[in-house]
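Notebook p. 47: complex prediction with heme C.
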Amino acid sequence: MKLFIAGVILGVLGFAAGIWFYFSTGMVPVAVSDTDMPFEALLARKALHARIVKQGDKPSPVPADEKNLLAGATVYVQNCAVCHGLPGQPKTTIAEGLYPKPPQLFKGHGVTDDPASETYWKAANGIRLTGMPGFKSTLSETQLWQVSQLLANADKITEPVKKALAPPAPAPAASGPAH
Ligand code: HEC
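Predicted complex, structure tokens below:
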């Protein structure tokens, strides 16, 4: 029995020493272009999913009508597009340089398979240790639901909403003599 307890203690100490060695000898991937840490993506997703499930599924107080989707498009262009992209546009340099990568929400199915409440949670609270900011202190409840409804319906947006999501026209080239 004594030997067993000594074994357990040694095992725990050895494990702790291994972790300390891993973190203190420059082996941990910290650069954007490094590969994943072992189990990093799996554990991060599991933790995030568990937290959102714990929160429960709230029905959206904002209906997915055109007025709200248009308002959501304005919120999106101003706050999200720089990382999550616009329909038919290439990824921005900011999106290219982030790790983890921000999913391009108007490419493929985006988050149309998630309930609006899940997107609402992520937009309100952000996702720690990623580039994903939390917007609950800067956007109103209504704006957060509007942009979440837009993303939940990103695969069936109408022409006016698509127009609202077009990139801003480039500034006209300077003409005439330089000042
Ligand atoms: C500075 C960059 C940046 C901005 C701005 C940004 N995000 Fe994100 N977002 C990210 C990153 C990076 C991730 C991926 C995080 C991860 O892998 O866990 C992400 C993840 C998400 C996800 C989860 C996607 C999925 O597949 O589950 C949603 C939803 C989301 N963002 C919505 C928004 C909304 C809405 C806005 C604007 C109000 C916004 N984001 C603004 C960087 C950004």
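Notes: The mean pLDDT is 93. The two ends are 88 Å apart (CA to CA).
Next step: compare against the earlier run before touching the bench.
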